[in-house]
Write a structure and sequence with these properties.
The protein is α/β, with parallel strands linked by helices and 271 residues long. The chain has 2 domains: 90 residues, 2-Layer Sandwich (Nucleotidyltransferase, domain 5); 128 residues, ATPase, nucleotide binding domain (Nucleotidyltransferase, domain 5), CATH 3.30.420. 34% of the residues lie in helices and 26% in strands. The strands form 4 sheets. The protein has a 5-stranded mixed beta sheet, with helices on both faces. Helix 4 packs across helix 8. The two termini are 38 Å apart.
């Protein structure tokens, strides 16, 4: 078997642990080189997680690369750190905002979560000139999460059920049973999002329109309310796995950057 090739131009790896999914991104100077995902394990699935980590880019020599961890599941951190050392031979650094280019004095990881801080950092690094010092990040994932940075300070935001949770909740999940990907969670089919309208012509379209257009309207409405609270306009950037599907339904044309969290975690590594 040939020796693994040294990965040219690769400078770090970031790990996101969400409630439903783990993603690992390989970074280079030009951005994300590759990304791998798996479901967030539940109790008794440690072996599956170990296999996932051992299978990450086995053809590349990644030993010694720095790694950053952004997790909303603290109980998994010790397991991930052990698996990381076994695969890459380095410490997996927990994300923090100590060197962020904005104020984090009002930011509590316990209250808001590391993921929201990482997404804000990614937005500042990649879209700062367009967004300015005051903006909202809307993250469309398992949950729809908004986070506001105002005058260079993270203030907070809101958390709503995501599209999958909303679709899975209507009618106790019995209406669109074929689109259930897990108990209580529906599956979003991109082809069914074309031509959605507020005046739907049937139950199926009504559920999808309500979930999709309702999520968009919620974010736009929350942005307007937040602007009144801070008494100034807020830019908007969309992120998360479902953001490319929803961008077309916004009344304006916000930038879409699906992996803001991973980009922000890389900024932390390089700071």
């Amino acid at each position: 078997m040939a020796d693994p090739a040294v990965a040219p131009g690769v400078d770090g790896i970031t790990v996101k642990v969400g409630l439903s999914r783990i993603s690992v991104a390989l970074h280079g100077a030009g951005g994300i080189v590759a990304i791998r995902t798996t479901g967030t394990p539940v109790r008794g699935e440690g072996e599956r997680l170990a296999k996932f980590f051992s299978s990450l880019w086995p053809d590349l020599d990644l030993n010694g690369l720095p790694g950053a961890l952004v997790s909303v599941v603290p109980d998994l951190s010790p397991v991930l750190e052990r698996l990381w050392r076994a695969r890459f031979g380095t410490l997996l650094r927990p994300f923090d905002l100590s060197r962020a280019p904005f104020s984090s004095e009002d930011y509590s990881f316990g209250a808001l979560g590391a993921d929201r801080g990482a997404s804000i950092w990614g937005a500042v690094a990649r879209h700062g000139p367009r967004l300015g010092q005051s903006f909202m990040v809307a993250d469309f994932g398992t949950h729809t999460v908004t986070t506001v940075l105002c005058r260079g300070r993270i203030l907070g935001g809101t958390i709503l059920p995501g599209l999958g949770l909303t679709i899975g909740a209507v009618g106790g999940g019995r209406v669109l049973q074929e689109q259930r990907e897990a108990p209580g969670r529906g599956r979003v089919v991109p082809s069914e999002l074309r031509g959605l309208r507020a005046i739907a012509r049937g139950t199926r379209e009504g559920i999808l329109s309500g979930a999709v257009l309702g999520s968009v309207a919620a974010v736009e409405g929350l942005r307007s309310r937040a602007e009144r609270e801070v008494e100034e306009p807020l830019g908007l950037v969309l992120t998360g796995g479902l953001s490319p599907l929803l961008a077309r339904f916004f009344s304006q044309n916000p930038p879409v950057d699906r992996q803001l969290l991973h980009h922000g975690a890389r900024c932390f590594l390089l700071a």
